[in-house]
Specification:
Elements: E1 17-23, E2 26-31, E3 36-40, E4 63-68, E5 75-81, E6 84-89, E7 94-98, E8 113-118, E9 125-130, E10 134-139, E11 144-148, E12 163-168, E13 175-180, E14 185-190, E15 195-199, E16 217-223, E17 228-233, E18 237-242, E19 247-251, E20 270-276, E21 281-287, E22 290-295
Antiparallel strand pairs: 1-2, 2-3, 3-4, 5-6, 6-7, 7-8, 9-10, 10-11, 11-12, 13-14, 14-15, 15-16, 17-18, 18-19, 19-20, 21-22
Length: about 300
């Protein structure tokens, strides 16, 4: 069925779904029994069903209902990017599949995969974070690894070199959460509440009071403040919350279709975090041309 829906519609009758992710017209989800399921478009093998379609071709092997990925029942977390998927298992291993532009699968090549393939042999992966052509994962010891497209510095290696396998970002082991924008750029929070940014900075989306250099910033650079709790990198605009319940936005606010997406009642671009009124904000995120946030229930 290709009909659109203007309100939420339940997928099947199952009540055992626990974790889901989706991007570019495909979705993956994990059930409470640890099985992994996928549905939607499958242009680069991103459904993980061992069916590889041509890019934009008529042989697109899409699925209109959830289909189990393999037979394993120990999947833990799943995340998705542009025609790409990444997941961890309960044994701490990391797996990727789909498109591999600029080495984004982390498998030491640029070859697409249509079924899950293990990244290396390590078994201490904790949190996978997918972007468009840049990927990241945090290990259980708090260390951060990135790979994929490097020409805007988004892999955090102080250079602009593509990486086709995971490489550690610095030596710090206090990384807590991370978000990757589509351009790409990165916003990451450490366990001490500090916020860091690197990668594309074309619209001031790194929050560093500058839109330079146009080629991006290639190593983690601290954004002022020490009580950040959550951050979301979108296209060219960013949003973050602090532990005091305040909400802050910065970046593009009028170009590329982002008309007022900073939520500041104007169309002015900002290159530093600017507060939105209120102190009961809980979580913020955004996409291409929009922003949104949840408030604490009263």
């Amino acid at each position: 069925v290709n009909d659109g829906y203007s309100s939420p519609a339940q997928i099947g009758a199952d009540t055992t779904w626990s974790h889901s992710a989706g991007d570019d017209a495909f979705h993956l989800a994990i059930k409470t029994d640890g099985t992994l399921w996928s549905w939607g478009r499958n242009l680069a093998g991103e459904l993980g069903l061992n069916e590889l379609a041509s890019w934009g071709g008529s042989s697109d092997t899409k699925k209109s209902s959830p289909t189990q990925v393999g037979t394993d029942g120990n999947w833990s977390k799943v995340t998705t990017g542009y025609r790409f998927a990444m997941a961890t298992k309960t044994d701490g291993t990391l797996w990727t599949w789909g498109g591999s532009s600029d080495g984004s699968l982390g498998l030491n090549d640029n070859t697409r995969r249509s079924s899950p393939c293990q990244v290396g042999s390590d078994s201490d992966w904790s949190d996978p974070i997918a972007g468009r052509d840049v990927q990241a994962a945090i290990k259980t010891d708090g260390s951060l690894y990135m790979w994929g497209r490097g020409y805007e510095g988004a892999t955090g290696q102080n250079n602009r070199t593509d990486r086709s396998s995971p490489i550690q970002v610095g030596t710090d082991k206090t990384w807590n959460t991370l978000s990757i924008g589509t351009q790409p750029y990165v916003l990451a929070i450490k366990t001490d509440g500090t916020l860091w940014g690197w990668g594309n900075n074309w619209k001031g989306n790194l929050g560093l009071n500058s839109i330079n250099p146009s080629s991006g910033i290639s190593s983690p650079t601290q954004i002022p403040g020490t009580n950040w709790s959550q951050a979301g990198a979108a296209e060219f605009q960013s949003q973050a919350t602090k532990t005091d319940g305040t909400l802050w936005t910065w970046g593009d606010n009028v170009n590329s279709g982002t008309y007022g997406s900073l939520g500041l009642n104007d169309l002015t671009q900002r290159s530093s975090p600017t507060q939105i009124p209120g102190t009961d904000w809980m979580e913020a995120s955004g996409g291409a041309g929009f922003g949104m946030a949840f408030k604490l229930s009263s």
